[in-house]
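Reading group handout, session on sequence-to-structure problems. Before we discuss, look at one worked example. The prompt was deliberately terse, the way you'd type it at a terminal:

> structure tRNA N6-adenosine threonylcarbamoyltransferase

The input record follows.
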Amino acid sequence: MDKDLKILAIESSCDETSAAVVVDGRIVLSNIISSQIDIHKKFGGVVPEVASRKHIEVISVVVEQALEEAQITLKDIDAIGVTYGPGLVGALLVGLQYAKALSYALNKPLIGVNHIEGHISANFIQYKDLKPPFVCLVVSGGHTYLVYMKDYGKFEVLGQTRDDAAGEAYDKIARAIGLGYPGGPKVDKIAREGNPDAIKFPRANFHDNKTLDFSFSGLKSSVLNYLNQKSMKEEDINKADVAASFQKAVVSFLVDNSLRACKLKNVNKIAVAGGVASNTCLRETFKSQGSKNKVDVLFPEPILCTDNAAMIGSAAYFEYMRGNTSSLNLNAIPNLKLGER
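And the output record:
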C-alpha cells in the first residue's frame, strides 16, 4: 500500500466515549476520551442505562474533536474501526450505530474490533517495533486473560479467570473497606502506606498444577471474612495493610502465571494491557521479576491502558491488512470472546 492508512476509531464499550485517528496501526494523530467516572461515582459503579445515554450525548462532539486534533476531515479517512464487543450492550450499540452510519454515508470500509484485542494492540502504539510472537496479560475491570499472540490477529488463550476479573476484585475490596469508586486506583494508592506482609491472604490453589487460569473469588471472600471478624470483635482495621496484603496476593498471581507462560511458549517478552496495567505495584513487581528471569516486560503509558479509541484503531488496522472488514449488519456482542469473529 503506497499511502498511509488513516482509520477513524470509535470506542464505547463501557463508560468512556472515545474517538481517535490512527495511521498504519501505530501512529496516533488524536485520541479523545470523554470519561463518565464522576457521573457513576455516586452510584458506586457503572450504571448501564446512564452510560448509554451519556454516550449518545457526547459521541458526535468526541468524533469532531478527534478529527480536529488530527487536522483532517472525514473525507481523508480510509476506514472506520469500532468496538462491537465485549462490553455493555447499550453502550456498544451507540458507538457501533454511529460508526455504521459514517461507513454508509462516506462509503468507507467498516472494521469491527474485539475490545480485548484492542487492549493488546495498545502495545503496538507504545512500541513501534513490537512484533509477534509474545505473551500478553490482559487485566482490567472486566477481563483477565493470559494470551500467546502467535501473529497479528492470531491468539491462543493460555489462561483466564474462572470467576472475578482482577479489576473487579479490586473494586469489590475497595468498596468493602470504604474507599469508594473507582476501586483500583484507590487501593493502589492506599496500599503504598501499608505492609503487604501484614495479613496472609490465600491465592487460589487449583488441583491441576499445569493450568494458567486465575481465580479471585476465594481471595475476595478471605478479605471479606477478615473484615467481618474484625468488625464482630470491634477491633480496628488498618485499611492500608488490608489493601497492601490483598494487592500482593493479586499481583503475585498475575506475575507468576505470566512468567510460567513465557517458559511454556519459549518467549522472553510479556506485553501487559488493560486498566490494571496502570497499577504501580504490578509494574514494579513485573520489572523486578522480569529482570530476574531475563524477560522483557512491556507496559503502555497509562492513557493507553484505559479504554480508548487509539487501541481500537490499531487493532482495526491489522484486521484490515488481513482482509477482514465488516458488513453493515454487524451487531453488538456483549459476551464476545477473544479471537472470535
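Points for discussion. First: The longest helix spans residues 239-265. Second: Residues 32 and 257 are 34 Å apart (CA to CA).
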